Amino acid sequence: MKLEHCKRKKAGLYAVTFNDGRAYLFYDEIILKYQLLYKNELAEEELEIILKENDSFRCYYTALELLNRVVKSSKEVDGYLIKKEFSKKDREQAIVKLQKQGYLNDLAYAKSFVHDQILTTSSGPLTIKAKLLKKGISENDFQEAIKEYDEEIEKTKIKKIVMKALKGNSNKSIAMLKRTIFQKLISDGFNKNLIELELDNLKQDDEDNIRQKQLKKIKTKLERKYSGKELEYRIKMKMRQLGFKDMDD
User: Fold this and answer.
1) Residue 174 contacts by C-beta under 8 Å, 6 or more apart in sequence?
2) CA 249 centroid distance within chain
3) Burial code of 101-123, b = ≥16 C-beta within 10 A, e = fewer?
4) pLDDT above 80: residue 142
5) What is the pLDDT of residues 74-110, one digit of tens each?
């Protein structure tokens, strides 16, 4: 089989055409290793070897191109290469090579991820851990990375969320607020002990006035439809839904 044409393209690639009409894009490394610029003929068996090795380089450069656009974990890069239908062997070789070269570093990735989560989200440490484990970050790398998210930062975030909830739910009782805020903070991945510590100090200013205002509001609304014992029952149920245990003045 004869090599008819070899032309350099962009990004370190060469377009190689054979006399039977077949054409391939080979990487610089392949061209140099097999001296394709100087050969006139190539055996079919040798071409098969070259094509397999070229696929390995293509896998590597595909991953490198991805990492030049966005930082990824090793697992995310592998997932990307799977979608591109590269073999397991080529994927593993590419990832090991990129790790050795410093392009892939799961610990550095985890530290950067934790830093961004602290600055841009209201996620607690446990939620961040779940996200990182899903991205293939090891437990050891997570424990090292999460050190930046110390207890003081977590307390500050919890307090901020609590204060925001207080302002947005001024019509509810302390009991109901505590339940609502606790559930939210737990779902956001914060430490249970720190949540309880903050909520133990929670006091709603002038809760009795809030209760009286809600009682008046509910009573005014329900009086249009009910009266007597039925009215009292309906009011009591509405007040309990807001977390108020009684309607005593």
Assistant:
1) 202, 203, 204, 207, 243
2) 50
3) eebbbbeebbbebbeebbeeebb
4) yes
5) 999 999 999 999 999 999 999 999 999 999 999 999 9
Rounded CA separation 47/64 (Å): 25
Long-range (24+ apart) CB contacts under 8 A made by 66-72 are: 67/98, 67/103, 67/104, 71/109, 71/112, 72/104, 72/109
pTM above 0.70, yes or no: yes
Query: 126: part of which helix (H) or strand (E)?
Result: helix 125-134
CA torsion, ordered 63, 66, 70, 75, to nearest 10 deg: -40
Cβ atoms 186, 209 nearer than 8 A: no
Name the amino acid, one letter, at 201: N
CA-nearest of 211, 230, 231, 209 to 219 is: 231
Please count the other Cβ atoms lying within 10 Å of the Cβ belonging to residue 49: 11
